[in-house]
Amino acid sequence: MAAGTWRDGARFCEIANEAEKKSKAGEAGKLFGRLLTPEVVEELHAAFIWAEDGAMDPLDGWKRFCSMLQETEKIRGAIDAPLRDTGERATHRAAETGKLQNLKWLLDNRADINATTAPALELSPAGDVSLGLTPVLVAASFGQTKALELLASLGADLNLARADGATALDLAADKDHAETVSWLEQNGAVRGLT
């Protein structure tokens, strides 16, 4: 699939509708009984990103959609698809809000544990600017120590830095998250800024 196809919502939906017709995961030409339009895909994706902790229906629904795209169109990685307006992925939202069940589900389903936020329309009308935050950086910034523990236990890099050099330890300290700072220091995190 050409890189620009993801940005062309109508073309993406055309491909997805065709994929569902060919897919074993699909239902008679419609995903969940609905014809896919850019609005429907964005609605499904937002429900996935914003799912309540432990609410499996939105997570499993998006996974089914991703499986259908992979099976029929060989499109991989949709589990990590970012929101267009914010650039955040489901792993970032779960890390920010401490939704540990969702975070574990995402990582069990091969979401990229070190994925950075994508370019966002909120940052630039052209959608060409990203904050470059990993789930670890997001969790540290919001003082989500339990999310950091889970991410670290599954192999996340606690010392990946933003483009400016800021690390999780820098962000937690900047926000005065003392418990998170202590945990990060005890687990080998280093400062990137001086």
* Largest beta-sheet characterization: none
Quote the beta fraction: under 5%
Number of domains: 2
Overall 3D form: elongated
Tell me the CATH superfamily of the largest domain.
Ankyrin repeat-containing domain
Total number of helical segments?
A: 9
Helix-and-strand structural type: mainly alpha
How many E strands? 0
Uncertain spans: 1-9, 26-30
First-to-last CA distance = 43 Å
Order of helices and strands: HHHHHHHHH
Kindly identify the CATH topology of the largest domain.
Serine Threonine Protein Phosphatase 5, Tetratricopeptide repeat
Rounded Rg: 18 Å
Provide the residue-averaged pLDDT.
84
| CATH architecture heading of the largest domain | Alpha Horseshoe
* Helix content range: 40-55%
Short description:
It comes from Effrenium voratum. This is Ankyrin repeat domain-containing protein. With about 190 residues, the chain is mostly helical.
What does this protein look like?
The protein is mostly helical. It folds into two domains: 1-81, no CATH class; 87-194, Serine Threonine Protein Phosphatase 5, Tetratricopeptide repeat (Alpha Horseshoe). Helix content is 48%, strand content 0%. It contains nine helices and no strands. It has helices spanning 9-22, 38-49, 56-73, 90-97, 100-108, 135-141, 145-153, 168-174, 178-186. Helix 1 (9-22) packs across helix 3, helix 4 packs parallel to helix 6 and helix 8 (168-174) packs antiparallel against helix 9 (178-186). The longest helix has 18 residues, at 56-73. This is Ankyrin repeat domain-containing protein. ANK repeats lie at residues 86-118, 131-163. It holds the Pfam family Ank_2.
